[in-house]
Amino acid sequence: MTIDPRGEVILRVVPHITDINSNGHIFGGWVLSQMDIAGGIVAGHIAQGPVATVAIESMKFISPILLGDVVSLYAWEERRGRTSIGIRIDVTATRGNSQRGIDLTSGLFTFVALDEHHRPRPLPIG
After folding, report:
1. Boundaries of each HotDog ACOT-type domain copy (predicted)?
2. pTM
């Protein structure tokens, strides 16, 4: 396996037959939930605690996800505010015997750090 220029894979998943829509592609909502999980992992690490998704921006589907694809999610900090973090998430797939990489979707998710009362809190310095 080669190293991807986007860095570390945060999540790698394989969709199931129950994730297929009537067109034979994987539901967009399925990949959206996987992106939210991957982004939450990165945002929670940066926030050093719980986070909540507050916005999804500039989401773009590039190629359909097919049954049998191995889906890899890359996520990293793109911007930071006082209480919020913008996490860029790119999704790719390896498909078939060739294992060629296919760009599937990309989006910018905004997470807010939460305190013990589930209210926004300042991010740690650093």
Report:
1. 5-117
2. 0.91
